[in-house]
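REVIEWER CHECKLIST
Item 1: Sequence provided? yes
Item 2: Single chain? yes
Item 3: Sequence as submitted:
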Amino acid sequence: MYAAAHVHFINALENNTFNEFTRLLNAANAANDIKSLKEMYVDFLVRENCVYSLDDEKKFLRLFANDETVQTQAELEDIAKELLCVCVTLGENPLIRYHRPLDIKETINRRIPEQLAKAVQSELDNFCATNPEYPPPRDPPLPSGTLIILDRTIDPISPFLHEFTYQAMVADLLEVEEIPTGLKYEYKYTQEDGTTQDQEVTLVETDPVYCTIRHMHIANTTEKLISDFNAFLDENQISSSSGPTTAASLSDMKNMISNLPQYQEMKSRFSAHMNIASECMSEFKSQNLEEIGLLEQDMACGETPEGEKPKNLVEALTPILDDPLTSQMVKTRLILLWIATSDAVDPEDLETLLAVARLEQEYKDAIENIKLLGVQLSKSANKLGKKMKKGLKKKTNPQQEVPFDLSRYVPVVKRIVEGHIDGTIDQSLFPNNIRNVKQRNTRKNTEEAVKEVPKLRVYKTQWHKKSSKGTNAAPKPPSGPPIIIFIVGGMTYSEIRSAYEIAETFDREVYIGSTHIITPDKFVTDLGKLDKKIPPPKGLIPPYTGSIHKSNSVPGGGQQALPPRTTSSVPNSNSKGHHHKLLGKW
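Item 4: Structure as written out by the authors:
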């Protein structure tokens, strides 16, 4: 069917895998049909300009579950190879900073960030050994960036909170489908004749309206939609012979949009976000989220909007948990948040809340399993982690006003990165000494490695450098080296938003990624599975079953030769990770 093939792999292959692949090609007399073999180092998803994902939600279960059969080191080495892809794509050989918790004697695996940091450093050292010119020079010159490795235990609060910014609210409250490039949502649209029609919208980077409002509080979102819609009408000199000439509400927008058939694309975008914002507000009211969200923020922040310590939290939670209109999931999130924010959980209070909530077993399992993330369920808990909490507390800046009482909590990830930038981070909790330790051991086989594997020219990709004033304007150079954040076990939409805020505040390149993106409901569901046996991962690539019948010789004798293997990584022979990835992932 085709004259020849170029075979590109999304990540480096293990040597034994490549050798077997070569053997099969030669045995099938297919060497002449293969024009190139290249390892691309793109084994991750780019979700947004500043956001990447390894798209592997099962990693949370395999790394944090109470299952002794899971090979933690193999899982981490698998992640390390994918993080190497991120670094290579960015053209960075970063310093690595990681979280080293004080309470490492807990029953859960609290050394995940440190173990992963060592594995990533090993991958980087091997890559640099075979690519002496890596990393490529930056223009303008900047010091090496930093890779900050954390895991989900760093902040057990964010995953349970109701977030009231547009993107997070959509993912939490509406039935959306996660796709590789964003979110997909289906809704019913009322047409001009009064009939309804199913509509599908994708919330992705190519939608300028979505990119403008995704991190706005829902109250500001509706105002922004109306403002931008009126600006669109004004720019295109659109007027109406009957009715208002500007929109003052989402209802006005709905009526005016139906009279704009010639502006189909923008009409579709504004209409979609208008409907989505309306449905979010409808869920906000029907689920009593104003009262629930305020209580959540009091627990998460440890203070009320007036700055006082919240009192009688059990009494405040009881009527909400007893309300039959409060869903089992929301009840579970509230109890988990109460546990995660308590210095000491009184067993009698917990028993009272559980009795009032009347939870089904799957939700009780999630509450019981929170201890696997280091959150204790009794007064006798180890409290050595308090030093970390105190070190991350930030003094309130009176000039920084919090515009909404429902959005006071600052994710721990944001505080850590801010501390890294301004130099106030606790070095004992977040050391960056991996490179110094590893470089005494890594390059002993450098000459052999360079001879064995050809070099790969690295092309740097910048995801987020888009001009805010049009595509023709040159991007502003960053004020410092880039920061790459990675969270093992899932990242929240509030943490994603924080990365954008840090990038804007400090004028830095900030990239945030994780094994996957989590929503509160998904996180609670996964928590409930942590005490269950983890099924082994299924291979996505079927074994080769074809018959080999062609001659492997060439005219005149001799063996066919495949084209050179274009790669630049020395595989880790000790890795037992799973490399069955779909090529369509990228």
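Item 5: Key structural point noted by reviewer: The radius of gyration is 27 Å.
Item 6: Recommendation: ____
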